[in-house]
Amino acid sequence: MSTELLALRDKIDEVDKSILSLINKRLALVAEVGDVKSKHGIPIYDPKREAEMLAKRRQEAENIGVSSALIEDILRRLIRESYIHENDKGFKKVYTGQGSIVIVGGNGQMGRLFARLFTLSGYHVKTLGSKTMHQAAEVVADAAAVIVTVPINKTCEIINQLPQLPKDCILTDFTSIKVKPLEAMLKKHSGPVVGLHPMFGPDVPNLAKQVIVYCEGREPAKYEWLIKQMRIWGANLCAIDAKKHDKCMSFIQALRHFTSFSYGVNLQREQADLEQLIALSSPIYRLELMMVGRLFAQDPVLYADIIMASDDNIELIKRYYQCFGEMVELIEQRDKAKFIENFNNVTEWFGNYAQRFIKESQVLLKFANDNRE
């Protein structure tokens, strides 16, 4: 190796050390920002500030001849880390009254995640599980909110088993279907009721930019503090009617998980060589394979419950099966004209979203390619 190359690498190493020092300084400032936000109850995620900052840095990068995409990639990664550091010092407590937060199913992964967030916000958190349900009346006696986060097939049963709750106590659930749990909660409790659905798994490092759906039940003014608390954690709260929510979830969860499940079963039955598939895959196929593999790294009971949660899910999957059969028939007949017709119909239906998704997916494809061994 030439002396000239070694000298250049030494200079790069020195620049890298400077970058590390600056990153450390930035994270220290972020921690101070977190203190201020916690003190004043400001959400950790500020979309306007983030968008403005990224736009300025992109322009500044272009002005000095540096790729604006490179700078945005670096800054977005730093921002994700920043949200974690802002999280460390806790959050402002919104609720000013007395009472604890009771999490039914608090020993599960999602229960533990929210127990931690409520604790960081200064709430007294209690949990109820299958072994302690006989103590429920005592545990909920001073509850400001009772959150049911148990498997879908047990949610309504557990709601019905709850003792009488304090008049102004919020009763809510984290189930991925909303109509039936809401009906059960409204029947069980005469006070404030709201249906919640965190649209993420329990392995998220923080709630910045994460979506939590909420469906109105009863007395929204009395559960507004809970919605505000979740916004302070950084979550994006999305209000929707329970029936519309469940219809969307049939596509977002049930149908998507079913297609991944079916594809994985087929790969296994065909005895596909995963090592070869990974070695030969394009970034887009690698991503698709990652999403299928991710499913099979998780709890099969959970996904069985999600897919089989309602008759509507099953009917939707059956219609997909019929559509799949029609498309198989089309390629069996090698009807290229019909294929193109269907393709163009879907392209028109997607409209501008097709080009938007191409742009958004480029980031994911780069990430998939960067992680190739």
Automatic annotation (TrEMBL):
<keyword id="KW-0413">Isomerase</keyword>
<dbReference type="GO" id="GO:0004665">
    <property type="term" value="F:prephenate dehydrogenase (NADP+) activity"/>
</dbReference>
<keyword id="KW-0028">Amino-acid biosynthesis</keyword>
<dbReference type="GO" id="GO:0046417">
    <property type="term" value="P:chorismate metabolic process"/>
</dbReference>
<keyword id="KW-0520">NAD</keyword>
<dbReference type="InterPro" id="IPR036263">
    <property type="entry name" value="Chorismate_II_sf"/>
</dbReference>
<protein>
    <recommendedName>
        <fullName>T-protein</fullName>
    </recommendedName>
</protein>
<feature type="domain" description="Prephenate/arogenate dehydrogenase">
    <location>
        <begin position="99"/>
        <end position="361"/>
    </location>
</feature>
<dbReference type="GO" id="GO:0070403">
    <property type="term" value="F:NAD+ binding"/>
</dbReference>
<keyword id="KW-0560">Oxidoreductase</keyword>
<dbReference type="Pfam" id="PF02153">
    <property type="entry name" value="PDH_N"/>
</dbReference>
<dbReference type="InterPro" id="IPR050812">
    <property type="entry name" value="Preph/Arog_dehydrog"/>
</dbReference>
<dbReference type="GO" id="GO:0005737">
    <property type="term" value="C:cytoplasm"/>
</dbReference>
<dbReference type="GO" id="GO:0004106">
    <property type="term" value="F:chorismate mutase activity"/>
</dbReference>
<dbReference type="GO" id="GO:0008977">
    <property type="term" value="F:prephenate dehydrogenase (NAD+) activity"/>
</dbReference>
<keyword id="KW-0057">Aromatic amino acid biosynthesis</keyword>
<dbReference type="InterPro" id="IPR003099">
    <property type="entry name" value="Prephen_DH"/>
</dbReference>
<dbReference type="InterPro" id="IPR046825">
    <property type="entry name" value="PDH_C"/>
</dbReference>
<dbReference type="InterPro" id="IPR036979">
    <property type="entry name" value="CM_dom_sf"/>
</dbReference>
<dbReference type="InterPro" id="IPR036291">
    <property type="entry name" value="NAD(P)-bd_dom_sf"/>
</dbReference>
<dbReference type="InterPro" id="IPR046826">
    <property type="entry name" value="PDH_N"/>
</dbReference>
<keyword id="KW-0963">Cytoplasm</keyword>
<dbReference type="InterPro" id="IPR008927">
    <property type="entry name" value="6-PGluconate_DH-like_C_sf"/>
</dbReference>
<dbReference type="GO" id="GO:0006571">
    <property type="term" value="P:tyrosine biosynthetic process"/>
</dbReference>
<comment type="pathway">
    <text>Metabolic intermediate biosynthesis; prephenate biosynthesis; prephenate from chorismate: step 1/1.</text>
</comment>
<comment type="pathway">
    <text>Amino-acid biosynthesis; L-tyrosine biosynthesis; (4-hydroxyphenyl)pyruvate from prephenate (NAD(+) route): step 1/1.</text>
</comment>
<dbReference type="InterPro" id="IPR008244">
    <property type="entry name" value="Chor_mut/prephenate_DH_T"/>
</dbReference>
<feature type="domain" description="Chorismate mutase">
    <location>
        <begin position="1"/>
        <end position="90"/>
    </location>
</feature>
<dbReference type="InterPro" id="IPR002701">
    <property type="entry name" value="CM_II_prokaryot"/>
</dbReference>
<dbReference type="InterPro" id="IPR011277">
    <property type="entry name" value="CM_T"/>
</dbReference>
<dbReference type="Pfam" id="PF20463">
    <property type="entry name" value="PDH_C"/>
</dbReference>
<keyword id="KW-0827">Tyrosine biosynthesis</keyword>
<dbReference type="Pfam" id="PF01817">
    <property type="entry name" value="CM_2"/>
</dbReference>
